[in-house]
Specification:
Elements: E1 2-6, H1 10-21, E2 25-29, H2 33-40, H3 51-58, E3 63-66, H4 69-74, E4 78-81, H5 96-110, E5 116-120, H6 128-141, E6 149-153, H7 163-168, E7 172-176, H8 180-188, E8 196-200, H9 202-232, H10 237-244, H11 268-281, H12 287-308, E9 314-318, H13 333-343, E10 347-351, H14 353-361, H15 365-371, H16 373-376, H17 383-389, E11 392-395, H18 400-405, E12 414-417, E13 430-432
Parallel strand pairs: 1-2, 1-4, 2-3, 4-5, 5-6, 7-8, 9-10, 9-11, 11-12, 12-13
Helix pairs in contact: 1-3, 5-6, 9-10, 11-12, 12-13, 14-15
The structure holds nicotinamide-adenine-dinucleotide (NAD).
Length: 435
């Protein structure tokens, strides 16, 4: 393919060289003449293992570099934007380079007769393609997106120092586009490269990139905090984390990685609390560890806000124990939710068959009758009963019984889903907590 890449920084120059090596005809563009001269001479403008050799191989052949936007657009069918998106002083994203390059590309597209695809490779927040890139390209080209040109998002995941290897072995290739044809054309640039091609909406693709980096930052901060608290117990944090990573079912896996409701139960809150307490006693400042219970409490508050948004009084809570398939109520976030709703004067009914059973004859009977009689008195015997009572139904956890009940919930009711019970819910009053 005939490709142009705007921005010959760490991302742009590596991508350009790698695309050229794969047989594409690449034009690299930058405002910095020194970088352009370096690239055309087959010299790397950055320090990156293997890049000098690669540039020496492709420069002057499949890879040309220029400062001319018009020439680059004329001699390519697809442009990647890989300009910088630094932080502003207030922490916000500085999109001035993206805007400026879109203005330049837009102007060049004005005179181009054939269709062109503009792909955002830079890291940009959700909504940037639709709200900044498209309007700018339209204003400067005088053309309409989808007619004179097409757009997509294709975030970059390479790491400096292993950039070429990462380009050739990506974890996945994320393409954000509104139409299949554009996504297919962008995907074809990566023909022969391993890893799944994942096509999403532009906003989801933009969000995926930020989520990856926020997750990586969380991992580093977490490992460092665990290492620091391990050290006060005289334990080698490296030994701990190495072993933690051997568990691929709970620790390093997709488990616990689904947005939904707050954690609870007899272990997680208690153990985070105890570890935090000991670390505080030793004057260790561990903001990530100390913020976990606050983050959890804040999520319960968001759930409550969502439920209270509808001006109704009668609420049904489907599930009271801390998760599906147990009668354990210790530190259940749904107990907290139920108590807050009661405190605010809602007319609440609760359905939880495991708690109802335990209330009659179980080890938990004493706890239920003495600690939460205000909630256990509100338990009803069937889902029909709760649906007849409630104007808003709140689904706590993914119980198969709740899932099969969903289609029979009348349209005029509101369903607040705190767990992601079913991806295909069609009910008009359905709302999810994180989706
Ligand atoms: N560096 C990384 O490891 C990495 C990895 C993944 C994603 N990203 C993202 O990729 C984007 C680029 O990052 P980078 O580190 O390569 O940036 P960089 O600062 O190294 O390079 C940006 C280049 O864009 C050029 N530029 C600015 N305006 C231009 C214009 N109008 N026309 C042509 N060129 C122009 C600059 O001169 C510079 O050479 C950022 O959004 C970054 O967040 C970076």
């Amino acid at each position: 393919m005939r490709i142009s890449v705007f921005g010959m920084g760490y991302v742009g120059v590596v991508c350009s060289a790698c695309f050229a090596k794969r047989g594409h005809q690449v034009t690299g563009v930058d405002i910095n003449r020194d970088k352009i001269a370096d690239i055309n001479a087959g010299r790397s403008p950055i320090v990156e293992p293997g890049l000098s050799e690669l540039l020496a191989e492709v420069a002057g052949g499949n890879l040309q570099a220029t400062t001319s936007v018009a020439a680059a657009i004329a001699q390519s069918d697809l442009s990647f934007i890989a300009v910088g998106t630094p932080s502003k002083a207030n922490g916000d994203l500085d999109l001035s380079h993206v805007k400026h390059v879109c203005e330049q590309i837009g102007e060049a597209l004005r005179d181009k007769a054939t269709n062109h695809i503009v792909v955002i490779r830079s890291t940009v927040l959700p909504g940037t393609l639709r709200e900044l890139v498209v309007p700018t390209l339209e204003a400067y080209s005088g053309k309409k997106a989808g007619q004179g040109f097409r757009v997509a998002v294709n975030p970059e995941f390479l790491r400096e120092c292993t950039a070429i290897r990462d380009f050739d072995n990506p974890p996945f290739t994320i393409i954000g586009a509104d139409d299949e044809g554009t996504a297919r054309t962008v995907a074809s640039v990566y023909d022969g490269i391993s890893g799944e091609i994942v096509v999403k909406s532009p906003e989801v693709a933009e969000m995926i990139k930020y989520t990856c980096n926020a997750w990586h930052a969380t991992k580093v901060a977490f490992a460092n905090e665990i290492g620091s608290v391990a050290k006060i117990f005289g334990v080698d944090g490296r030994e701990v984390m190495d072993t933690i990573c051997k568990d691929r079912s709970l620790n390093v896996s997709s488990y616990y990685m689904r947005p939904g409701f707050a954690f609870g139960g007899s272990c997680l809150p208690k153990d985070v609390r105890a570890l935090s307490y000991r670390a505080m006693q030793r004057d260790l400042d561990l903001p990530l560890l100390y913020s976990m219970l606050d983050s959890n409490a804040e999520h319960i508050r968001r759930g409550l806000d969502l439920i209270m948004r509808k001006p109704v009084k009668r609420i049904g809570l489907l599930g009271l124990s801390f998760k599906s398939g147990t009668d354990d109520l210790r530190e259940s976030p749904f107990v907290e939710l139920g108590e807050r709703l009661l405190g605010k004067g809602y007319d609440l009914r609760i359905y939880d068959r495991n708690v109802a059973q335990a209330r009659m004859h179980g080890a938990n009977r004493e706890y239920i009758n003495t600690k939460i009689p205000h909630l256990s008195n509100l338990l009803v015997g069937s889902l029909d009963e709760i649906a007849n009572h409630a104007e808003t139904l709140v689904i706590s956890y993914p119980d198969p019984e709740f899932r099969s009940f969903l289609p029979s919930i009348p349209n005029e009711k509101t369903i607040i889903d705190l767990t992601g019970i079913d991806a295909g819910v069609k009910h008009p009053g359905y709302q999810g907590i994180c989706w």
